[in-house]
Design a protein that fits this description.
The complex is a heterodimer of chains A (about 110) and B (about 110). Chain A contains no helices and eleven strands. By secondary structure, chain A is mainly beta. In chain A, strands 2, 4, 5, 6, 9, 10 and 11 form a seven-stranded mixed beta sheet that branches. Chain A is globular and about 40 Å long. Chain B is built from no helices and ten strands. Chain B has a five-stranded antiparallel beta sheet, with no helix packed on it. A five-stranded mixed beta sheet of chain B has the order 2-10-9-4-5, with no helix packed on it. In chain B, about 0% of the residues lie in helices and about 55% in strands. Chain B is an all-beta fold and about 110 residues long. Classes of the chains: A mainly beta (about 110), B mainly beta (about 110).
Chain lengths: ~110, ~110
């Protein structure tokens, strides 16, 4: 099925461990985004990639890095996980042009203990 | 980027009734988008209304946009239990990468 695929769906990390969240889309979208959502809150933008080869910081980039590996894939890396990074992470993509909505993945639920 | 502010924060109605939720924003927009999030799932794009449009329909959804008041409303008619979800509005930027900023949403509960 066409869409945005995120892996893994669940992950538990110990403080200080590192991991990479994977995101891939098969809709030939140019723009991709990473958000986090804490309980009872809206989504906060971590990083985004307007097009292949570019990445930019969002509202809450500290503690994260990203890689736009190719047009399909946009990964999010936590170098040294902290309990404050416990959250649900969503990847989204969007086609070029100003009047297109986002397509979201189903999320990665990350717990840092 | 600017955030949309949804109102009310929570809404509980009986199945079959209509549900209306509102969104306000601060600066000029290119479009305004509404999303639904079922518990534990990713957001689903419902409808996009352009800044030069005043009203748009999609099935049981009706969205209005008043750029002079910087506000939008989402009406769900003949609500169903499956409409139980959180609803978010997101103003679309005039320029740039179309980064969307989401507020806390309206939590809609449809009671049988």
């Amino acid at each position: 099925n066409a869409g945005v695929t995120q892996t893994p769906k669940f992950q538990v990390l110990k403080t200080g461990q590192s991991m990479t969240l994977q995101c891939a889309q098969d809709m030939n979208h140019n723009s991709m985004y990473w958000y986090r959502q804490d309980p009872g809150m809206g989504l906060r933008l971590i990083y985004y990639s307007a097009s292949e080869g570019t990445t930019d910081k969002g509202e809450v980039p500290n503690g994260y890095n990203v890689s736009r590996l190719n047009k399909r894939e946009f990964s999010l890396r936590l170098e040294s996980a902290a309990p404050s990074q416990t959250s649900v992470y969503f990847c989204a993509s969007r086609s070029t042009g100003t009047h297109y909505g986002y397509t979201f993945g189903s999320g990665t639920r990350l717990t840092v203990v | 980027s600017q955030q949309g502010e949804e109102d009310p924060q929570a809404l509980s109605i009986q199945e079959g009734e209509n549900a209306t939720m509102n969104c306000s924003y601060k600066t000029s927009i290119n479009n305004l988008q509404w999303y639904r999030q079922n518990s534990g799932r990713g957001l689903v794009h419902l409808i996009l209304i352009r800044s030069n449009e005043r009203e748009k329909h999609s099935g049981r959804l009706r969205v209005t946009l008043d750029t002079s008041k910087k506000s939008s409303s989402l009406l769900i008619t003949a609500s169903r239990a499956a409409d139980t979800a959180s609803y978010f509005c997101a103003p679309g930027e005039i320029q740039g990468a179309q980064k969307l900023v989401f507020g806390q949403g309206t939590r809609l509960t449809i009671n049988p």
